[in-house]
Amino acid sequence: MPPEWEPHAATWTSWPFDGDLWEGFLESARREFAQLVSTIARCEDVYLNVCNEEAASDARARLTCCEAPLERITFHRLPLNDIWFRDNGPLFIRNRQGKVALTDWVFNAWGGKYDWELDTQAPAAVARLLGMQRFAVPYVMEGGALELNGQGVCLTTRSCLLTPSRNPGLGEAEIERLLHDYLGVRRVVWLERGLEDDHTDGHIDTIVRFADDQTIICAVEDDEDDPNYAAMQHNLETLLALRDPDGKPYRIVELPLPEKELRLNGKRLPMTYANFYIGNGFVLVPLYDDPNDERALDILRPWFPGRRVTGLSARALITGGGAFHCVTQQQPQGAVKGELCYE
Fold first, then answer.
1. pTM here?
2. Does the active-site annotation cover 326?
3. How confident is the model over 119-147, as pLDDT tens digits?
4. Which position among 51, 66, 326, 341 bears the catalytic label?
5. Burial of 280 (0-12, 13-18, 19+ CB in 10 A)
6. 40 touches 63 (CB < 8 A)
7. What is the C-alpha separation between 251 and 234, in angstroms, rounded?
8. How many structural domains compose the chain?
9. Structural domain that includes position 123
């Protein structure tokens, strides 16, 4: 599985559609989504999944208003339960000759928390559309639970992948073997847990990300009284002690969490700047109208040379439980690398 910063053939994402799931925030989430898709499409092709005619019509109208390059957006009719294509979509892989295929893991809505019968069929539909080789894996896995660099190092959390509601009976060794066999992972680094009230049980892509093979962005909490402080500090200490395949320490960059809290139905929303998405010539960072927004952008910009690091609002999107990385899935370029966009 190539790292996210390698050239993309396209980005896959899904248009928000279920008003009940969005609990009154569908309209504002769609406004943010239009900006997200428009920004990505200015630099690379987008496959936009739309579950029905209303979603397709709404998406086309909003993207037209945003002056999105519609010629770079392919609308794909795909029945889904929800939009989090990082998790319910395929994980793409590439062989040494540059041929791209996809892996199709079981998706069970983060341990059976929501409906998933349509979601888990999405990778097979993508394979049919692309005419791409598909490897079916009879085990549960979510893309947001895995963070890979280009050296086969994978970061993940025990709180997520070891939950009995995903793959009962599988321990660390068995999961490591699956990641090796299907994604080419050479080493798995286990962190303990993620953010408070994260319904995914602690996806890695909300707390720790690679910027390149040697640089790790790590979310930290400055307030010692905050429930996230101890978990983030433990992750930081683990990463500071980590060594690369050559025995060298990684470059660890501390990234603050948003200063303010947002809550929905009594639960804290997992707001984080680490849920950024790396594309062809850009990095899109979720912002929350928070005092730490600009601080986060200033910290991230130096670590992505040649890419424009841009912040977009995700204050409505986060009410669904995730942000930009959660709703996207990169399709890597094949044997011929594409041109990068530096707009």
1. 0.95
2. yes
3. 999 999 999 999 999 999 999 999 999 99
4. 326
5. buried
6. no
7. 17
8. 1
9. 8-332
